[in-house]
């Protein structure tokens, strides 16, 4: 297949491009490199030294003979170029990773809120309307988030996208209808993914665009089978307070003897998936495309759920790291249960990699190797969800909070 990977320079997009290229697909990476600019804005860098996208593509070609084509294009602001690109290249499938994906970054200031909404919603809408306008028949696979559901299950499992509801008609009859699971985003970033869902519903119904939306949990790990093949193919790894996600953050914190930064009681339960499974799920989703006129196919792309404090406990046991319970900069439930259905990927043959010490060790190993690249001042999560919470943010978990380290 000819596959366009939008956002293919990012943490999930790069290993997905390698994985699909390895299988013989023709890959076109489209990216505006905004994530690299955001690193500059925040004064941070990936824990792992990332080469330019052009250099990474060159290394892959010299190792495998497979071409990775890179196109510098902003999906949100360069609509005409996007439409022309689609008309010229006519991909069979499009994988859409190209959004601003950090909840803390999206809540930093009004400017960051505006940027995140403009970027994410325009990127998705530009893509959909350009697909219709050019008449290409590509299968669109979008990376959404578990966070569109919120994280409370009221004791029932979260279904894969749709909730069957009984509606009583005027004549008193009960009619069943599937509706999109009620959305309850917890940040401006998560809100953009909820808006994406409505865009997808409309274009699938109105224009027969074939769409799969993957509601993904938190991705952890750093290597995949392909990225291990050469040190210059190494993946991005974010550890800072805005872009670092919880499990990967705890692992690097343990590696540099920084207290594990648990927000609040750590009673938040979240869904997780290893990066290797994430790329495999995308391959499986590509092989199971909906037909024109079908409703959007929604998969829950996660393999297990964990409570934040249990993860901290596990890593502390493994490494001897101290745990700091910090005031939570986010507005979120202190404690929640989370039960999630993921039957569709299991039935397509996904054999989940679960949290094992071996794999956790591997990330700690990567962190130790590149520890000299870590700026400890960039570890605290300082982006607060409200002005009130901002006044309680802990900027120095290493110093001030040592009292509350257990
Ligand atoms: P990332 O920030 O590492 O990568 C996103 C890429 O998209 C970057 O290379 C960026 O430059 C590019 N991009 C952003 N806006 C663009 C635009 N307007 N035009 C062109 N390129 C643009 O993020 P990631 O961790 O790889 O996440 C990829 C997708 O998966 C996101 O949509 C995210 O919401 C979703 N997701 C990620 C996780 C996770 O834990 N990382 C979990 C669930 C879902
Ligand atoms: N947390 C801590 N300590 C930290 C960092 C986070 O306790 O140092 C807590 C947060 O308060 C939150 C939980 O861990 O309760 C998860 O935070 P996160 O930053 O790992 O994940 P989140 O903000 O939800 O976002 C990440 C990705 C996003 C993706 C989402 C999937 O950045 O792109 O959509 O995970 S999900 O969480 O399933 O919605």
Automatic annotation (TrEMBL):
InterPro entries linked: Epimerase_deHydtase, NAD(P)-bd_dom_sf
A Pfam cross-reference name: Epimerase
Entry superkingdom: Bacteria
Pathway, per record: Bacterial outer membrane biogenesis; LPS O-antigen biosynthesis
Residues in NAD-dependent epimerase/dehydratase domain copies: 3-289
Family in the record: Belongs to the NAD(P)-dependent epimerase/dehydratase family.
Name of the protein in question: UDP-galactose-4-epimerase
Organism taxonomic ancestry: Bacteria, Pseudomonadati, Pseudomonadota, Alphaproteobacteria, Rhodobacterales
């Amino acid at each position: 297949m000819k596959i366009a990977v939008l956002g293919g320079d990012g943490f999930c997009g790069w290993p997905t491009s390698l994985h699909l290229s390895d299988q013989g697909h023709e890959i076109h990476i489209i990216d505006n490199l905004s994530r690299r600019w955001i690193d500059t804005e925040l004064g941070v860098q990936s824990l792992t030294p990332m080469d330019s996208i052009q250099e990474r593509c060159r290394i892959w070609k010299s190792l495998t003979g497979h071409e990775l084509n890179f196109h510098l294009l902003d999906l949100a602001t360069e609509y005409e170029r996007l439409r022309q690109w689609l008309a010229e290249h006519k991909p069979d499938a499009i994988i859409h990773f190209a959004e601003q994906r950090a909840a803390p970054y999206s809540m930093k200031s009004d400017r960051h809120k505006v940027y995140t909404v403009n970027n994410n919603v325009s990127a998705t809408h530009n893509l959909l309307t350009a697909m219709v306008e050019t008449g290409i028949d590509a299968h669109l696979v979008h990376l959404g988030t578990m966070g569109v559901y919120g994280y409370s299950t009221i004791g029932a499992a979260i279904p894969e996208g749709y909730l069957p509801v009984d509606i009583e008609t005027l004549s008193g009859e009960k009619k069943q209808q599937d509706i999109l699971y009620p959305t309850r985003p917890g940040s401006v970033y998560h809100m953009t993914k909820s808006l994406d869902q409505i865009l997808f519903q409309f274009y699938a119904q109105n224009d027969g665009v074939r769409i799969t939306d993957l509601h993904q949990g938190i991705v952890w790990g750093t290597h995949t089978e392909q990225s291990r093949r050469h040190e210059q193919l190494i993946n991005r790894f974010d550890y800072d307070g805005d872009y670092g996600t919880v499990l990967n953050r705890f692992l690097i914190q343990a590696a540099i003897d920084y207290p594990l930064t648990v927000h609040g009681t750590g009673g938040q339960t979240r869904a997780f998936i290893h990066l290797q499974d994430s790329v495999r799920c995308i391959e499986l989703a590509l092989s199971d495309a909906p037909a024109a006129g079908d409703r959007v196919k929604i998969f829950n792309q996660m393999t297990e759920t964990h409570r934040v404090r249990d993860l901290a406990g596990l890593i502390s046991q493994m490494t001897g790291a101290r745990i700091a319970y910090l005031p939570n900069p986010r507005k979120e439930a202190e404690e929640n249960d989370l039960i999630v259905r993921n039957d569709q990927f299991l039935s397509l043959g996904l054999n989940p990699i679960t949290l094992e010490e071996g794999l956790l060790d591997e990330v700690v190993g990567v962190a130790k190797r590149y520890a000299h690249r870590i700026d400890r001042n960039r570890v605290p999560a300082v982006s607060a969800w409200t002005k009130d919470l901002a006044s309680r943010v802990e900027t120095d978990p290493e110093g001030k909070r040592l009292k509350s380290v257990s």
